[in-house]
Amino acid sequence: TDNLKKYIIEKGDFLISMTGSTVNVMSSAVGKMGRYRLDDKSLINQRVGKIYLTKPDIASFEYVCQYLNRYEIHYNLALNATGSANQANISPAQIKDIEILLPTLQEQKSIASILSAIDDKIENNLAINKTLEEMAMALYKHWFVDFGPFQDGEFVESELGRIPKGWEVKI
User: Fold this and answer.
1) Can you list the alpha helix ranges (DSSP code H) found in 46-86?
2) Are 36 and 10 in contact (CB under 8 A)?
3) Of 10, 101, 137, 150, which has fewest CB within 10 angstroms of its CB?
4) How far is it, in rounded angstroms, from Cα 164 to Cα 171?
């Protein structure tokens, strides 16, 4: 089981796609990185790499994740990938060859803390936006599809179906 530990991923692990498209389609390009966010443990599939530190005394894991997740890193990995057609690949050696600027460990932790707080705020704002969009759609449907506020009023037929009396269809 000790040999299998490197294939187990847990919440917070940092993963990299080692196969994908080329720089022509950056949204699915090889070298995309991100955090595993599920609470359940999983196993790594082929062509997925798990980033881990071998010297945590000189590098902060959070800082390294933030540093590697920059667009420039992703773009350069995709640019230097090998393969043909729409099947680009990177090797573990290419990932290990990425040069990482390492300020002092305390500076790394400070930088990572600030960037993580910004990432959390962005994620929270996206969740709020989604909720607001869902609320707006529910309100729109209630008013203009189900005619909720007009349920006790009179309805008339129109070319679109029944609508509240006094309303008209305009195109």
Assistant:
1) 61-68, 71-79
2) yes
3) 101
4) 17
Q: Of 13, 11, 109, which Cα lies nearest the Cα of 56?
A: 109
87: left (phi over 0), alpha (psi -120 to 50) or beta: beta
Q: Is the Cβ–Cβ distance between 30 and 77 less than 8 Å?
A: yes
Is 0.90 surpassed by the pTM of this model?
no
Residue 95: exposed, middle, or buried by beta-carbon count in 10 A (0-12, 13-18, 19+)? middle
Q: Answer yes or no: are the C-beta atoms of 101 and 108 closer than 8 Å.
A: no
Report the amino acid identity of residue 49.
G
Q: Where are the alpha helices (DSSP H) in 101-156?
A: 105-140
Tens of each residue's pLDDT in the chain, 171 residues = 678 888 899 999 999 999 988 877 877 888 888 889 999 999 998 889 998 888 899 999 999 999 999 999 989 998 888 887 678 899 999 999 999 999 999 999 999 999 999 999 999 999 999 999 999 999 999 998 888 998 888 999 999 888 999 998 888
The total of other beta-carbon atoms located within 10 Å of residue 78's CB is 23
- What are the structure tokens assigned to 26, written together? 């950056």
Residue 149, token pair as written in the block: 């506020």
